[in-house]
Amino acid sequence: MNTAVLIDGAFLRKKFHAAYKKDITAENINKFANSLLTHFNLPLNELHRIYYYDCSPCTAKSSLPVTNRAFLFEKTPQFSYGKQLLSDIKKLNFFAVREGTLQFSGWKLKKTAYNKQPLTDDDFEPELHQKGVDIKIGLDLAWISFNHIAERVIFVTGDSDFIPAIKTARRNGIFIYLATLNHMVRPELPDNCDLSLSDSIKIFNCI
User: Fold this and answer.
1) Closest CA to 22 of 155, 186, 207
2) C-alpha closest to that of 25 among 52, 62, 58
3) Distance between CA atoms of 167 and 172, rounded to whole angstroms?
4) Most exposed among 153, 159, 161, 196, judged by the fewest C-beta atoms under 10 Å?
5) 189, burial (CB in 10 Å: exposed 0-12, middle 13-18, buried 19+)
6) Would the pLDDT of 202 be above 80?
7) What is the pTM of this model?
8) Which sign does the torsion angle of CA 140, 142, 147, 152 carry?
9) How far apart are CA 96 and CA 107, in angstroms?
């Protein structure tokens, strides 16, 4: 029985940063994905492929909210990190990267600056939204199940919006293993999976 691993990249990066106060690397992700198989007691030699879903860095051009000076996302450390991370993941064995786009929709005031006057550019942060990632995850989950690509799927996410896709996969005979990394999720999400590892943030200890 082959196993496919589907990783919601933005979710994993956020949970890793919350746990360790640093950015995740491609090697961290590789070790994490393989540790999932061990924690679910699944054979390592039956791994089909690891699908990693994330957005390529934002390339928008804007101006800062207070000084109105030109702002280029391509000049930020976050842009360089994001580009390098995706490039490194693509080089990993048995990994496939599915990319969406990151859309800039303006500047929002940081919570720490709600009562501050006067405001500076540093009191604002870009408002970014993922586009195209969730649909790629849902389509791949359906594709895997309808074409019998794998018999088991380990799904790393905390998003209950994937419940319909999970239900479809299970109706097609796929066993769904859920890893939520201690994230507070709606009970319907684990209820619609075959096995849920809610305390799977412990897997980070293997990285």
Assistant:
1) 207
2) 52
3) 9
4) 161
5) buried
6) no
7) 0.93
8) positive
9) 33
Cα–Cα distance measured from residue 46 to residue 4, given in angstroms and rounded to the nearest whole number: 9
DSSP assignment of 54-87, as one string? EEEPP--EEE-TTT--EEEGGGSHHHHHHHHHHH
Percent of the chain with pLDDT over 90: 90
Residue in the structure block whose two tokens are 């976050």: 78
Quick: pLDDT tens for 79-136: 999 999 999 999 999 999 999 999 999 999 999 999 999 999 999 999 999 999 999 9
The amino acid that residue 42 corresponds to is L
Torsion of CA 134, 88, 29, 129, to 10 degrees: -30
Conformation bin of residue 106: beta by default, left when phi > 0, alpha when psi is -120 to 50: left
Instruction: Give mean pLDDT, residues 42-49.
Output: 93
**pLDDT tens digit string along 56-69?**
999 999 999 999 99
CB-CB contact of 55 with 78 (8 Å): no
Transcribe 90-152 into DSSP letters: HTSTTEEEEEEEEEEEEEEE-GGGTT-SS--GGGEEEEEEEESHHHHHHHHHHHHHHTTS-SE
154 CB burial (10 A radius; 0-12, 13-18, 19+): buried
Q: What percent of the chain has a predicted confidence (pLDDT) above 70?
A: 95
CB 44 within 8 A of CB 1: no
The average confidence (pLDDT) of the chain is 94
